[in-house]
Specification:
By secondary structure, the chain is α/β, with parallel strands linked by helices. The protein has a single domain (2-144), classed as 3-Layer(bba) Sandwich (D-tyrosyl-trna(Tyr) Deacylase, Chain: A). The protein contains two helices and eight strands. Strands 1, 2, 3, 6, 7 and 8 form a six-stranded mixed sheet that branches. The chain has a two-stranded antiparallel sheet with strand order 4-5. The longest helix is centred in the last third of the chain and has 18 residues, at 99-116. The protein is globular, with a radius of gyration of 15 Å. This is D-aminoacyl-tRNA deacylase. A motif (Gly-cisPro motif, important for rejection of L-amino acids) lies at residues 137-138. It is found in: Cytoplasm.
Length: 148
């Protein structure tokens, strides 16, 4: 399971030119689900991203988490994060979780995230989404959690 975290001052998602999710200060999280991923390793990933220290403290050091700054989390599924790009000129998606399984897990993780954090917004699984963001910094990290 992979999550690309981007510290943002604002981010939003549209589907068919209609807004479906947005946050102000917080994290845009692009989530890639791979074969073998589960709710258990998803829970570990959510705990890590909510506590990951990417926001500046009073000394301008990255010592604060999205929880510490009461920021939002915008969760967007992105199967392309599961691509293998090691060989050739076309990505391979053989490691990606099949869409039907991925949708179930994505919904479970979104529900869990909403239990764990007060400000959560989301994209629409499988939709053609237009994601807009202002990356603050820029600050971007790739978190990975291995399957159980």
């Amino acid at each position: 399971m992979k999550a690309l975290l981007q510290r943002v001052s604002r981010a939003s998602v549209e589907v068919d030119a209609k807004p479906v999710g947005s946050i102000d200060t917080g994290l845009l999280v692009l989530l890639g689900l791979e074969q073998g991923d589960s709710l258990a390793n998803g829970r570990r990933l959510l705990d890590k991203l909510l506590d990951y220290r990417v926001f500046p403290d009073a000394q301008e050091r990255m010592n604060l988490s999205v929880r510490d700054v009461s920021g939002g989390v915008l969760l967007v599924s992105q199967f392309t994060l599961a691509a293998s790009t090691r060989k050739g000129l076309r990505p391979s998606f053989s490691a990606a979780m099949p869409p039907a399984e991925a949708e179930v897990l994505y919904v479970q993780l979104l529900d869990l995230l909403r239990e764990l954090h007060p400000v959560v917004s989301a994209g629409v699984f499988g939709a053609d989404m237009q994601v807009s963001l202002t990356n603050d910094g820029p600050v971007t990290f790739l978190l990975e959690v291995a399957p159980d």
